[in-house]
Amino acid sequence: MDSLEEKTVKSETIFEGKIVKLVVDDVVLPNGAMSKREIVKHPGAVAVIAITPENKMIMVEQFRKPLENTIVEIPAGKIEPNEAPELTAGRELEEETGYKTEDLTHLVSFYTSPGFADELLHIYLAGDIHKQANPLQADEDEFVNILEVSLDEALQLIEENVICDAKTVYAVQYWQLRNAIN
């Protein structure tokens, strides 16, 4: 197989924000031609599948400005500098939902949009979740409604395009498969 690698000859940071950095790279293509690549640099994120003893998935409803819409998602958040993904998962679950766990199992990691971003998302399954009386506080700019959703309700929310992000669709399909096996 011929090499498909693109060699970077110049890299320029166009924007550096609180969460992402936008870089424009000049690259040499495998055929020798030049091209530009716009790349979003992201520190990585986690998402948590948390299912109650009553077989309801803990989800959050929040407004997503890029979509100009409110959607329903599993709890998730950005990995802080020098923070292990598992610690982020536990922290985000508690901050966003008030639930805590000491039992996190890593299920999968995947790149969310490899055509333009390097964000790596780690999905964890939370076991033995319990509601905290005094949970960690959510970020000051984060507003969510906490939902407990049955599998049938989650499938209906996908049908209605209320659940419409890849991590949450994955979580519901994982849950559906797990229920079919058990």
Task: Kindly describe this structure.
InterPro entries: NUDIX_hydrolase-like_dom_sf, NUDIX_hydrolase_CS, NUDIX_hydrolase_dom. This is ADP-ribose pyrophosphatase. Keywords: Hydrolase. It comes from Listeria weihenstephanensis. Its cofactor is Mg(2+). The chain is an alpha+beta fold and 182 residues long. The chain folds into two domains: 35 residues; 137 residues, Nucleoside Triphosphate Pyrophosphohydrolase, CATH 3.90.79.10. The protein is built from three helices and twelve strands. Strands 7-4-10-9 form a four-stranded mixed sheet, covered by helices on one side. A three-stranded antiparallel sheet has the order 1-2-3, with no helix packed on it. It has a three-stranded antiparallel sheet with strand order 6-5-12. A hairpin with a 4-residue loop joins strand 1 and strand 2. Helix 2 runs antiparallel to helix 3. It is elongated.
Could you list some keywords that capture this structure?
182 residues, Nucleoside Triphosphate Pyrophosphohydrolase, three-stranded antiparallel sheet, 3 helices, 21% helix
SSE layout and pairing:
Blueprint: E1 7-16, E2 21-28, E3 34-41, E4 45-50, E5 57-64, E6 69-73, E7 76-78, H1 85-97, E8 99-100, E9 103-111, E10 120-127, E11 130-131, E12 145-149, H2 151-159, H3 166-181
Parallel strand pairs: 4-10
Antiparallel strand pairs: 1-2, 2-3, 4-7, 5-6, 5-12, 8-11, 9-10
InterPro entries: NUDIX_hydrolase-like_dom_sf, NUDIX_hydrolase_CS, NUDIX_hydrolase_dom
Domain Nudix hydrolase: 40-171
Organism: Listeria weihenstephanensis
